[in-house]
Amino acid sequence: MNQPIEFFFDFVSPYGWFAAERIGGIARTHGRDVAWRPLLLGVTVKQAMGLPALLQTPLKGPYLLHDAERCARFYGLPWRPPTPITFSSVAAERAVVWAVARGDLDVEALVLGLYRRAWAEAGDISTPDAVADAAASIGFDRAALRAGIECQETKAGLRSSVADAVARGFFGSPFIVVDGEPFWGTDRLPIVEQWLESPW
Amino acid sequence: MNQPIEFFFDFVSPYGWFAAERIGGIARTHGRDVAWRPLLLGVTVKQAMGLPALLQTPLKGPYLLHDAERCARFYGLPWRPPTPITFSSVAAERAVVWAVARGDLDVEALVLGLYRRAWAEAGDISTPDAVADAAASIGFDRAALRAGIECQETKAGLRSSVADAVARGFFGSPFIVVDGEPFWGTDRLPIVEQWLESPW
Question: CB under 8 Å, gap of 24 or more: what pairs does B101-109 form?
Fold first, then answer.
């Protein structure tokens, strides 16, 4: 059995969204599952790399917002970013950790639903209640998910996922890992596909 | 007459090479010329953004070298990087500034020749003599180019090109500018092509 493709992402990153929309299809084409692995850019970028937050970086911050809008057009996705454009993704990522641990839920649908709520509908996913509302609107059990966000196992699971990302050198969103081989960025998806067909 | 596509790059960046190999063809397809515009990442990254050099950044530095090798395979290019992998690109960029100012030389051939010497042949382009040798080996007048590297107009031209890049917010290599619209990275070439066909 092939290993799943690990997909590390942060909901604050629209590039993670563009790749999330496509990674499931790529995985299925190659007989793989996707392991959805939240990370927190605030930890990987600031603490592990010692860099300022991307959007606060001179030149790069303003460029990236404009680039993301162009990328959305290129990938055929609507673009209505949240206000404010930076927000806490902790609650949303805990919801994903909880859904993965449950084992019987459609995690891809949850990830895409939350991503679209934030970046295609200018919606709020910055609090447990907002996340639960967004998830309920696409068919998830609101009460179960709302409780799951707060449970200790979930919180420990997110910390563990972030620590794993830092330990393995995955600093951005998305990081796509195929059989241990890491690829950073939506723009690397064509190279991910080449790798799945013909690894070194 | 269409404006030329501005192509900002630094020879220390292999991503600049990957894009340099393709931008001429893209420009010709769309009835454009290429304006070859050297910049110095040491200035744009360190001074304008306040960031450490890419290869010295924890996690990101080691990742990028590995990624560049995979990208070379993806683009069908040989990969024999220089030793040491970081070098001064000032002489090589002055040669390009001189060739552009001359107006009667094949600047694309010079850029590609120097890039291939460094990244496909593990060659040295870090000194005026090494640059002149590399250029002579692909048919350029060694003595004229060697003298051109040292002349004051050339040096001022490179300073001006770098200052222009910083002033306009172009911090990386390559930066590809179409009618004032900037695109960062080889991986944005498909979006550059979309833009050339259908700008906002």
Answer: B101/B153, B101/B154, B101/B157, B102/B148, B105/B140, B107/B34, B107/B36, B108/B20, B108/B24, B108/B34, B108/B36, B109/B138, B109/B139
